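Hey Z.,

So I finally got round to the alpha-L-sorbopyranose thing we talked about over coffee. Here's the setup:
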Amino acid sequence: MTRSVALLGHGFAARAHANALARLPMFFPDAPSVERSVLVGRDPDRAAAAADRLGFARATTDLDGALADVDALYVAAPNDRHAAASTAALDRDVAVLCEKPLAPTVDAAERMARAADRSGAVAGTAFNYRFSPPTRAARRLISAGDLGTVRRVRAHYLQDWLVDPDAPWSWRLDADRAGSGALGDLSAHSVDLVSFLLDDRVERVAGDLQTVVDERPAPDGDGTRPVTVDDAATVRARFAGGARATLEASRVATGHRNTHRVAVEGDEGAVRFDPGQPNEMAVCRDPTDGFETVDLTDPGGPYADRWWPPGHALGWEHAVVHESAAFLDCVAAGEPFRPSFADGLAVQRVLGAVERAAAEGSWVAV
Ligand code: SOE
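And the result:
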């Protein structure tokens, strides 16, 4: 049965999802066949051009009308539009894959999770890095006990696109629209990823948020707009199972285009990887020894059989293809998808606790 899909938005994340949907028939022929039915955008001309470029049958500015004709909605619009679009779809039993972070606030994320609970449709949060091969390989090692007792975790996600004080203002810099800055944009990935790797939840956090540029040129060239979110975030987290994590996120990390590093250390071993560099991970199997590199394009590597021969590299976009295949399999089977809206809400609660901790200068329970 062909599943028809609507896509809300046509920016970077929307393009990654459209690419994923186009790849599925070639590389995941066992996934449900999908029609890219309708692209929803605010500007009719830009939506029509994007629909044409991204392979959608039609474009519209009418989300409600689009929802009448589709089985699933991919939400790839700015964060402040996630809740209304997702609940409109779920109230019609239309499945939803919503970009991270789930919402700008915990309250909005709670409304979305309640709508998912009410609905019979599948609801997922698009934490794409869960579907990167090194993430899957690392989780296999950890859940098999190969690292022993996990004691410390380190994750940092560093970008430099806001280093230039003249980089233009955007919705990502507005607390009302984005919720937070590097914290919600990048630390959200780290919180979800580490919780997934450890199969554990964050209990307490301490945090520090920093804004280094307070106003930026308005995109229309008319003066400047205030920056009301963090440019960088540091998080200390304690997991229920005892592990402790140090997380950093920055969009003013000079020299770092998109550096994403995750390290998990146990008493019997350790693993470290970059989920955005999906072809390898480093493993320390003997605590008295160092790391060795594992080539994940070799047979047995997660998803390796889906793509190219050993030694032929995957890119950033392949995790989004894996994510879409898993989501659409769940939609076809009527089974829950992970990360769910409940998982997205759990991350939002951690982010909210970090904001409180940063404001109070103390540890805060999640
Ligand atoms: C911008 O910082 C961004 O596009 C994030 O929003 C994505 O989640 C991340 O994967 C790449 O960087």
